[in-house]
Structure formats: structure tokens, C-alpha cells
Amino acid sequence: MAEPSHSNTLAGWREWVQLPEIGVPWIKAKLDTGARTSAIHAYRIEPFERDGTAWVRFRVRPWQESTEDEVVVECPIHDVRSIRSSSGHVQERYVVKLRLELLGRRVNAEVTLSNRDQMGFRMLIGRQALRRRFVVDAGSSFLGGRAPRPIRRRNRGRAEE
After folding, report:
1. 32, 52, 74, 75: which one has the fewest Cβ atoms less than 10 Å from its Cβ?
2. Is residue 130's pLDDT more than 90?
């Protein structure tokens, strides 16, 4: 049964997302209603077999320009799809199912694995994950607040948190 429209949560066009089941406490995501499928920045993508089932191992770096908090993830492969990028380029990508937390709501999403190093966001949340749950306000950002990321600064030769 579909959720009634009045239960939708207002979200900004960019939000902080949690992926606790794979060990990613926070990742900045773009909520993109123009994209059908969600995507996460993944690299060293290696398919393998476990107990007769296709799995994939990959690494995630949740912070732009940082190796901090990098995690190695192993998931069953849900699908392999041809994905057309916004520039028109078609690429075969592994699809995994991930549970994410967005604005206090849990969402099960099909997520493609893609190197997003050149993109402004480590994760893209597509309309399939957003439908019947969220209304995206294109003029707002971070309605759920900012991620509590530790800030390291050099001060007279010692690091501070």
C-alpha cells in the first residue's frame, strides 16, 4: 500500500545521508529527481562468488578529497544494468541494495556503483528511492542539518579535534 501524500518528508536538493549497515556514518548526497537510480562513489570494484551467489567488494570514501573513514564493503549483487549518464555515456554498473537513512527515515534503495571522483557529490539519490517518501525543495539544502564531522587543525605543532 502506498503512503499517503501528506506523510512525505520535505528534503533539500542536497542532504547528509547515513549508511550504517556498511559502516558509513555520513555521506553528502545530491537528491536528483531527474535520475532514476541512486549511485554511490565506489572504486576497486571486484566481483566474486560466495556460496554460489554473485557478490561485489568495493571501497567507499565518504569525504571529498580525503581518505579518512574509508570502508571496504561486500554486498550481494542485485543486478547489472546499463546506465546512461547525464552526458549520454552508457556504462554497465553493478547494482546493490543498501539501506540508507535520510532525514530520520530509513529507505531501502537500489544503488549503482560508480567512480564519482569527478562529481561534486559522493552519492546521488534518485527518484526511485525518493518516491512516495520525500518532496524535494530545489531551493533548500541540508534541511536535516550538517554532518558532525571532526575538524582537524594544526595549532603550534599539535593536532586538535
Report:
1. 52
2. yes
User: Quick one: three-class SS letters along 14-55?
Assistant: EEEEEEHHHCEEEEEEEEECCCCCEEEECEEEEEEEECCEEE
What's the CA gap between 106 and 149, in Å, rounded? Answer: 21
For the chain, state the CA radius of gyration.
17
**pTM of this structure:** 0.82
Closest C-alpha to 123, from 40, 37, 62, 34? 40
CA-to-CA distance for 1 and 117, rounded, in angstroms?
38
Q: Could you identify the residue written with the cell 587543525?
A: 153
Parallel/antiparallel/unpaired status of strands 79-84 and 90-102: antiparallel
